[in-house]
Known about the structure:
There is one protein chain. This protein has one domain (6-321): 4-Layer Sandwich (Glutamine Phosphoribosylpyrophosphate, subunit 1, domain 1). It is 31% helix and 23% strand. The protein is built from nine helices and 13 strands. The chain has helices spanning 6-17, 43-55, 60-73, 118-128, 136-145, 156-167, 237-240, 245-254, 259-273; strands spanning 35-39, 93-100, 105-113, 133-135, 184-189, 195-201, 222-225, 229-235, 282-288, 293-297, 305-310, 313-318, 320-321. The chain has an eight-stranded mixed sheet with strand order 4-3-2-6-5-1-11-12. It starts with 5 loop residues before the first helix and ends with a strand. Bound molecules: glycine. Glycine is lined by residues 182-183, 201, 203-204, 213-215, 234-237.
Amino acid sequence: MEKINRRTFMQSVAAAAAVSAVPEAEAKPEGSGPVFLSTWPHGKPANERAAEVFKSGGSLLDAVEKGINVPESDPNVMSVGYGGLPNADGVVSLDAGIMDGTRHRAGAVCALEGIKNPISVARLVLERTRHTTMAGEGALRFALEMGFHTEQLLTPKSLERWMQWKATPNHETFWITPDNHDTIGMVATDGRGHMVAGCSTSGLEWKIPGRVADSPLVGLGYFADDNAGAASATGDGDLMSNYCTSVSIVHLMARGASPQEACAEILKQMVKTIPANKDGECAVIAMNNRGEIGTASMNAKFHLKYALWRNAESQLLDSVVLY
Ligand code: GLY
């Protein structure tokens, strides 16, 4: 992609978007060292585990995978992995993907049933196959061949929620409750320019069986490129899939945008094309290969809290809200 300088980039952004300036995210780079940035409060224990794995000699991919395993395995996180809310048939159907920014390669699984850690299956798609994405029955067979075991992923709590929904006359689909947030997206650097991104979700609750949105698809729910940075998206994956958010953010950073400018710009582009997108449930996180970060939520109704681990400090912070 053509390199442009930061000034030219900012002029083009200002002219195209003609919207008010967005404040910088709070965090600034502070020397080298690993940085982990994740979505939602469940991202905080995920970052802490990732940092531990990395400190104990694991690779950055190991760290992101094991970090994401934390909310996947937590029955109280009802939007990811074990205990995630099921589809309309009452079946938990999981999506996840992970990308290595050095090899420029991803591994992903979609609509995987009965395996609580889909990010680990996605990691094996990356490491053991020449494929990028595996779905449904084939993804399950692959996982079993890799030594995973199936288990019931519905918990008493998620089953009760599904039965309540089923029993409601004229029940409609709806988004996850404010308590349970959404997808875990994680972006990370080792402090030496290597980038990894990963994402895992049980998706839209009561989704039509077979539905797959942005989270497991490379470039949509996550993207990493050591030459620029990494990004991830959370929220209404049916909406955001149409904007290829994560790869767009990384390309904006490659063209000179800061992570914060890039996060804001992709959400503004969504509104520029369809003004009603202002009300959409959309949020994004990004990190460049110097460890600088950016975060943005489309609106205050879907206000992303993000988790940041840097210099042994683990924080939960509020993202910038655009509209
Ligand atoms: N972003 C998660 C989903 O829409 O499935």
